[in-house]
Amino acid sequence: MAWTNHTIGRRAALAGTAGLAAGALLPPGIASGAPGGPLPAAPPGPTAGAAAASFANPVIWQDFADIDVIRVGSTYYLSASTMHYSPGAPVLRSYDLVNWEIAGHSVPVLDFGSKYDLNGGRGYVRGIWASSLAYRPSNRTFYWLGQIDFARTYIYTATAAEGPWTRHAMLGTAYYDAGLLVDDDDTMYVSYGNSTISVAQLSADGRSQVRSQQVFTTPSSVGTLEGSRFYKINGSYYIFLTRPANGQYILRSTSGPFGPYTMRQVLLNLPGPIPGGGVPHQGGLVRTQGGAWYYMAFVDAYPGGRMPALAPVTWTSDGWPALQLVNGAWGASYPAPAVPAPPRQVTPLTGVDTFDGTALKPRWEWNHNPDNGKWSVNNGLTLRTATVTDDLYWARNTLTHRIQGPTSTATVQLDHSAMLDGDRAGLALLRDSSAWIGLKRAGGTTRLVMVDGLAMDGNWNTTGKGTERASVNVQGGGRIWLRATADIRPGSSRPGTFSYSTDGVNFTRLGPAFTMGNDWRFFMGYRFALFNHATQALGGSVRVTRFELSTP
Prior knowledge:
- By secondary structure, the protein is an all-beta fold.
- It contains one helix and 40 strands.
- The strands form eight sheets. Strands 25, 27, 28, 30, 35, 36, 37, 38 and 40 form a nine-stranded antiparallel beta sheet that branches.
């Protein structure tokens, strides 16, 4: 997950083009479905009622990284990192491994210190890193486990993916890039570490550590291994590890969770399915109800972020996974998993939100923890100013939404009639280099502006608060439509553009195109963001009555 103590540069890793996958060069007929039992070498076609005959990669073109994926009965769940966004660690749900919805979040609030409240400090690029999701059949409970700030590990539990999730335990050891395994006898184990890989056994109640032992040291010829996922398959223990950001390896023990382990390469410098993107890596393995195996990885694809990609896996006769390639690369498409017809259609990751009801839908995450006294949902979203600042990166209650790739547009309908002098409100393309369209209130008048030049340095301190590039006076009424369009295909000069409307039908471009940054070091990709902050005094508000995320 993190790129500490690198022996190779990550950009060099992303530049690799020659592909090699374990098992790819085996003679025909050697591959089998899983250790100990033969299955077809290629995934079977879809059954009657399956959603589609094939699927395209990336299977989710939104920023969900450091993936863990599991199946509980006939339902699949996926967890991802979110760093400084709150709530953290989203849990996605699918019935076919292809179509996903956001069910909830494992970490309801980042209550790990005041910096996550933007109070005296900032938590950018900290918070929820690579973590693990598991299900414990004995008590029918989901477990999320992750370390925070390299200081300690937290465990949250819930009996349903939607929640409520509650803190179950805090452990004094920081299990870095951890994988959680619930063994056949209900014992819980954690694999973790960077290059030096260890395994810990937890107490029966999952609230303390019983023992921990180093089980593997990465050879210097391989470099860094991290991002553990821990499995028991047909009596053998497997630790699935990534070589950031261009390789995947697996360790196997036939002698128990504490080893000894032997290592095999799964992939290295494998061409990925997104033009201009990186090598698929990290993520996890999952088995369907019918016995087929799949690998869900992610692809570095900045400025958009890290996009999940899915590929079938078979097993060699001696018990090692083999990724199934298409012309020597991770396939741009594969036959759809053979699974029963879903019980219902999942909620799309795009579309309209009118903020009906009284709670935010799980597609939304705040930039740091919000001030819950300064926002509300009641058939519309009200954002009251929560911070007096001229720096958007310090402003609380900025609400974010992932961008859909390869290109998508966010349109918001906003009532600004309750803004006060000094207030700033609008729609941003938010990352360590940002721009926005929105309203500035001053001297009793309101102007619509396009601003770019918001920036942070490599320590995530603000270096630019923004430069106004264009403006128009707002005449009459308090309602306006704001629009941002983002091209997040991998590349160094992808544009974001802004426009506005006074009737919701006819839109006028405002300002120059904004060039989105694609440096990986912020990790999280660009997001659409709704904001409202004061520069003089609190008390103003805006109301968002409609948000739409659409694709061409």
